Every structure is written in C-alpha cells, then in structure tokens.
Amino acid sequence: ALKVLHPHLFDSPGFAKRFLREAQAGRAVLHENVVRTLGCDEVLLDGARCAFLVLEHVEGRTLRDLLRDLGQVPETLVREIWRESARSRTVTSVMPPAASPTIRVIGRLG
C-alpha cells in the first residue's frame, strides 16, 4: 500500500520532513496490530515533489466498510476494536522519543 503526501503540503513548513520521519518511526515498530512501514522516498514527477511511504498491505475490511454494512456497530465489537487498538498504542508509547517523533498508529481488525 502507498501513502502519498499531497503536493500542496510541501508548502507547509516542516510537513514533508515530519512525513518522512513517520517512515523512520514506522520501521522501528513491529507489532501484529500495527501496519509495517517498508520504505519511503521522495521523487520528482513532472517537476513536482512527491513523497510517499510504502506500507504493508493488510487484507480485511475498514471500519468505514463495517459501519456501512452494519449501520451500527455492536458495543461488544467496538470494545474489541478499541482493545486491539490500545494494544498497538502501548507498543508505540514505550518507544524512545528519537524512535517515535511523529508516529501515527494504524490499527487493524483481525
């Protein structure tokens, strides 16, 4: 999977730098509930800067799909999703600050 920084965000001071630091932090996290960051790069496309992260592809349904399909997510499932998400945040919260300057955790179901 690719996560691409929109070109207009390069105009925001430090945004591209934080985006690429996210990749460094993401490589440091190995946990079953966190999508792995496999790499990152910045290239020129038609004269415009383009930065992107290469992320592990995770099969499954998104929370948006789940909500659309169910209309209302049962409380027991919400609690399970929250519990699994909290497990991934626990891993990243104990990382040294240098390893996680701008980490963004993406949880997954299953």
**β-strand amount:** 15-25%
Sheet having the most strands: 3 strands, antiparallel
Please count the helical segments.
Answer: 3
Average of per-residue pLDDT values: 78
Q: Output the radius of gyration.
A: 16 Å
Distance between the termini: 18 Å
Given as residue ranges, the uncertain stretches (5+ residues, pLDDT < 50) are 96-110
Q: Report the helical percentage.
A: 25-40%
The SS-based structural class is: alpha+beta
What is the N-to-C order of secondary-structure elements (H for helix, E for strand)? EHEEHH
What would your notes on this structure say?
With 110 residues, the protein is of the alpha+beta class. It is 37% helix and 18% strand. The protein is built from three helices and three strands; from the N terminus they run βαββαα. The protein has helices at residues 15-28, 63-70, 75-93; strands at residues 2-4, 37-45, 48-55. It has a three-stranded antiparallel sheet. The longest helix has 19 residues, at 75-93. It is elongated, with a radius of gyration of 16 Å. It starts with a strand and ends in a 17-residue tail after the last helix. Residues 96-110 have low confidence and may be disordered.
Brief sketch in words of this structure:
The chain has 110 residues and is of the alpha+beta class. The protein has helices spanning 15-28, 63-70, 75-93, and strands at 2-4, 37-45, 48-55.
